[in-house]
Amino acid sequence: MNISFFLTPKAQVSYLFEDCPVRQALDDMMKSGFTAIPVIDPKGRYTGTITEGDFLRLVLSHSPEQLDHMNVGEVPRRIRHRSVGMDARMEDMIELVSAQNFVPVTDGRGMFCGIITRRDVIRFLRDSCQKPE
C-alpha cells in the first residue's frame, strides 16, 4: 500500500531549519518532547534528522560561547536517517522503522513532505494480519 495514506504532513510535523541557532533548536526540541527532529534547508529540502544524542555530544564537546555561534546545519550527526519518496510502499518501511522512530518522506525534488511514524507502520502491519483471507 502506498505511504501517502499514512503520511503525517509537514504542516503537522516539528522540524528545524539548518540555519536555526543551536540554542533555539535545543529549546524547540525540549518543548516538542521528541527525541529526533527532521532538518530541512531554507528551500525546504530534507537534509537529515538531528537527535538528542547529537545535541548531547555537541554540548559536551563545546563551550557555551561556541554554541552561541553555531547553527543546526553545523551539528555533527552520528546516524544518517534515510528518507523515502512519496511512491514508497508501507511494506518497504518495516526495516527503516526498526532503526528510526519515523521515516522522512520527500517528493521527487527532495522537498520534505512529512513523515511516516513507527506507530503508523505497526498499525498497518496489525491491520494486515487481521484481514481475513
In a few lines, what is going on in this structure?
The chain is an alpha/beta fold and 133 residues long. The protein has 5 helices and 7 strands. It has one domain (3-130): Roll (CBS-domain).
Walk me through the structure.
With 133 residues, the protein is an alpha/beta fold. It has a single domain, classed as Roll (CBS-domain). Helices cover 33% and strands 21% of the residues. The chain contains five helices and seven strands. It has helices at residues 22-32, 52-61, 64-67, 94-99, 118-130, and strands at residues 8-9, 16-17, 36-40, 46-51, 84-85, 102-106, 112-117. The strands form two sheets. The chain has a four-stranded mixed β-sheet. A hairpin with a 5-residue loop joins strand 6 (102-106) and strand 7 (112-117). The chain is elongated.
- Which CATH-level-2 architecture? Roll
Query: Which ranges are low-confidence, i.e. pLDDT below 50, for 5 or more consecutive residues?
Result: none
CATH fold annotation: CBS-domain
**Helix content range of the residues, please?**
25-40%
Biggest beta-sheet profile: 4 strands, mixed
Category by helix and strand content: alpha/beta
Q: How many beta-strand elements?
A: 7
How large is the share of residues in beta strands? 15-25%
- Strand order of the main beta sheet, please? 1-7-6-5
Radius of gyration: 16 Å
CATH homologous superfamily annotation = CBS-domain
**Global morphology:** elongated
Count of alpha and pi helical runs: 5
Instruction: Report how far apart the termini are.
Output: 17 Å
Average pLDDT taken over every residue: 92
Number of domains: 1
CATH class: Alpha Beta
Run of helices and strands: EEHEEHHEHEEH
